[in-house]
C-alpha cells in the first residue's frame, strides 16, 4: 500500500486542478494533507472524492486555521478516545485513524510551526508515544521539526531534544533508514527581499519496529515543490500489506 503526505500550502482555489493531478499521479491508497483551508478544502476534497478517495477525516481546527485531513480509497476508522496530551495542546496537529484492512494505525501530524507550542507539543508527544510503539503504527506528516544540525545546516530545532527521543522509543525514521547520511530538504526558508534561504527536512515518516519491517520504500518528490505547486516536497511511503 502507498501513503503520501504533503503540505499543500493552503491549497485549493486556482491551484486545485494541478494539486489533484499531482496527487492522483501517486496512485496512493491514503493521502495525508496539511495546510488545508476550510474555504478551499471542499473543491479539493470533492475532486479527490471523484478520483476514488471516498473516505476521510479531519483534525479539529478553527474556521480560519490551516488544518489537516486524511483521505483514503479504503475504509478508515477515526479514533474517538480522549485526545492525548499533545493533541489537547494543539488539536489541529494530530489525527489518529485505523486502517482495518491494512492492520495499521496512522497518526497524521501537522506540528506547530512556531512559538512555545512547538516544544510543548513535542515534549508531550515524546512522553506519550511509547504506548503506541508495540503495534503497527505510523507517524506521518509535516512535523515542523527535525534533528538539530542534521536536518538543517547550522540550525537547532526548538523540538530537537524531543524529536531525538523518537528513535529511542522503538520508532524508526523510514527515510533515514533507507538513505543513511544523505541530506535532502523538504522546505526552504525565504531570504529578505526574495531568494531561497536555508533548507530543512521537516516532513517525516516514523514507524514502529513491527511496521518498519513492512516498509518497501520511503522517498521525497521534490518536483511538486520545484514546480511551485507548494512550498513543501511530498513524502511517499510504500508498505507491504502484511508481514511476509
What's the quick description here?
The protein has helices spanning 16-25, 41-50, 85-89, 117-128, 160-165, 174-179, 209-212, 223-226; strands at 2-11, 30-36, 55-58, 67-72, 77-78, 94-99, 104-110, 137-142, 171-173, 187-190, 196-200, 203-208, 215-221, 234-239.
In round numbers, the mean pLDDT is 93
> How do the strands of the widest beta sheet line up side by side?
3-4-2-1-14-13
Task: Specify the oligomeric state.
Answer: single chain
CATH architectural name? 4-Layer Sandwich
**Low-confidence spans:** none
Q: Largest sheet, if any?
A: 6 strands, mixed
At the fold tier of CATH, the topology name is: Deoxyribonuclease I, Chain A
Query: What distance separates the N and C termini?
Result: 14 Å
Number of domains: 1
- What's the CATH H-level superfamily name? Endonuclease/exonuclease/phosphatase
Structural class of the helix and strand makeup? alpha+beta
Number of strands: 14
Query: Which bin fits the share of residues in helices?
Result: 10-25%
Report the total helices: 8
Q: Which H/E pattern describes the elements?
A: EHEHEEEHEEHEHEHEEEHEHE
Bulk shape: globular
- Determine the strand fraction and express it as a percent band: 25-35%
Q: Measured on Cα atoms, how large is the radius of gyration? A: 17 Å
> Given this structure, which CATH class is correct?
Alpha Beta
Q: Could you walk me through the main structural features you see in this protein, from its secondary elements to its overall organization?
A:
By secondary structure, the protein is α+β, with helices and mostly antiparallel strands. It has helices at residues 16-25, 41-50, 85-89, 117-128, 160-165, 174-179, 209-212, 223-226, and strands spanning 2-11, 30-36, 55-58, 67-72, 77-78, 94-99, 104-110, 137-142, 171-173, 187-190, 196-200, 203-208, 215-221, 234-239. The chain has a single domain (2-239), classed as Deoxyribonuclease I, Chain A. Helix 1 runs parallel beside helix 2 (41-50). The radius of gyration is 17 Å and the shape is globular. The relative contact order is 0.16.
Amino acid at each position: 500500500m502507498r501513503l503520501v503526505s504533503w503540505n499543500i500550502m493552503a491549497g485549493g482555489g486556482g491551484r486545485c486542478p494541478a494539486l489533484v493531478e499531482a496527487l492522483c499521479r501517486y496512485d496512493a491508497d491514503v493521502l495525508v494533507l496539511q495546510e488545508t483551508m476550510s474555504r478551499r478544502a471542499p473543491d479539493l476534497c470533492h475532486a479527490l472524492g471523484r478520483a476514488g478517495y471516498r473516505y476521510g477525516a479531519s483534525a479539529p481546527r478553527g474556521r480560519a486555521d490551516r488544518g489537516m485531513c486524511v483521505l483514503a480509497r479504503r475504509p478508515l476508522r477515526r479514533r474517538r478516545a480522549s485526545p492525548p496530551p499533545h493533541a489537547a495542546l494543539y488539536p489541529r496537529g494530530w489525527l489518529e485513524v485505523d486502517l482495518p484492512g491494512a492492520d495499521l494505525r496512522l497518526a497524521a501530524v501537522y506540528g506547530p510551526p512556531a512559538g512555545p507550542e512547538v516544544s510543548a507539543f513535542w515534549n508531550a508527544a515524546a512522553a506519550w508515544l511509547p504506548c503506541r510503539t508495540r503495534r503497527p503504527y505510523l507517524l506521518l506528516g509535516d512535523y515542523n521539526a527535525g534533528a538539530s544540525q542534521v536536518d538543517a545546516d547550522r540550525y537547532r530545532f526548538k523540538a530537537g531534544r524531543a524529536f531525538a527521543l523518537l528513535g529511542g522509543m522503538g520508532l524508526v525514521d523510514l527515510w533515514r533508514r533507507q538513505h543513511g547520511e544523505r541530506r535532502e530538504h523538504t522546505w526552504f526558508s525565504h531570504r529578505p527581499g526574495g531568494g531561497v534561504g536555508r533548507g530543512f527536512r521537516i516532513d517525516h515518516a516514523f514507524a514502529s519496529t513491527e511496521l518498519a519491517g513492512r516498509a518497501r520504500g520511503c522517498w521525497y518528490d521534490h518536483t511538486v515543490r520545484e514546480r511551485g505547486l507548494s512550498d513543501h516536497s511530498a513524502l511517499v511511503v510504500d508498505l507491504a500489506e502484511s508481514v511476509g
